[in-house]
Inverse folding.
């Protein structure tokens, strides 16, 4: 606006020279008045223009500031690189092997019969102790082993000997004897030779581990089975003593009437056999079937 007003009032100076002086004076007076009016109106207008321009600058400054702020903000958004993509490789989960150990079940075997009779042909005592018969049990703990022993042992008693139940091991025997006699006087005979046989059979459990090495349980089993064998060896000793006694009693049998000597000799040997059962029973009772000797698992 200021430029436009300045161009309106620009009059050439030669114009004043060509006019008459009075007219020039009037024109000068008019110009003075016009100049005064111009100062009254143009200056405030300039002030207003300045103010407007100042306001515009302020506004423009705010706009620029805002734009700059937006630009910075936008620039920051553009310049900030996105975080790198992290590739995470997850290893496949390997299937774990089934470590559960299934304990096999034992197979019950029939109760063992008494040892067979060995015909005593040679005078004296003939003893035969067979290798033990075993039944297999499994288990990863003493409780499991004991449970399978109770389930599958062939050593079962109906109670005819006073003790019914199932037992881990046994020692059984068959004692046979044969004797001959000769007449030594009128109606008097004496035993001339004696042959006795002793056949012993034993039954023991045989533990088979199922879960690899278990030193503690293996040691417990070894202690148990060793003591069990030792305990049953006590029965073998008693049986051998009984067979020896039969042999001794018959060899030393006194002269007897010939018609009675056969029955009398057999009755004595049978008494020794009955005593053998009694002493073996007392052995079990006095030792609580081995428990007092620590025969337990």
């Amino acid at each position: 606006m200021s430029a436009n007003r300045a161009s309106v009032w620009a009059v050439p100076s030669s114009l004043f020279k060509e006019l008459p002086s009075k007219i020039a004076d009037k024109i000068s007076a008019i110009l003075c008045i016009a100049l005064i009016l111009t100062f009254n109106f143009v200056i405030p207008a300039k002030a207003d223009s300045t103010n407007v321009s100042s306001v515009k600058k302020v506004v423009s400054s705010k706009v620029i500031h805002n734009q700059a702020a937006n630009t910075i903000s936008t620039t920051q958004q553009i310049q900030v690189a996105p975080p790198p993509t992290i590739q995470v490789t997850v290893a496949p989960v390997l299937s774990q092997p089934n470590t559960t150990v299934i304990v096999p079940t034992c197979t019950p075997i029939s109760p063992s019969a008494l040892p067979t009779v060995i015909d005593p042909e040679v005078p004296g005592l003939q003893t035969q102790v067979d290798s033990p018969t075993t039944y297999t049990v499994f288990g990863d703990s003493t409780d499991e082993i004991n449970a399978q022993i109770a389930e599958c042992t062939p050593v079962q008693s109906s109670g005819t000997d006073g003790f019914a139940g199932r037992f881990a091991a046994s020692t059984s025997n068959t004692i046979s004897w044969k004797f001959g006699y000769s007449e030594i006087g009128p109606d008097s005979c004496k035993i001339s030779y004696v042959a006795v046989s002793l056949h012993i059979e034993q039954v023991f459990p045989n533990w088979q581990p199922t879960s690899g090495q278990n030193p503690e349980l293996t040691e417990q089993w070894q202690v148990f089975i060793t003591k069990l064998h030792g305990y049953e060896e006590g029965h073998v000793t008693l049986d051998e003593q009984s067979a020896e006694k039969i042999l001794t009693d018959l060899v030393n049998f006194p002269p007897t009437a010939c018609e009675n000597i056969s029955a009398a000799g057999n009755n004595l040997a049978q008494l020794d056999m009955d005593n053998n059962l009694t002493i073996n029973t007392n052995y079990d009772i006095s030792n609580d079937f081995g428990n007092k000797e620590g025969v337990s698992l």
Summary: DSSP finds six helices and six strands in the chain. The chain has a mean pLDDT of 76.
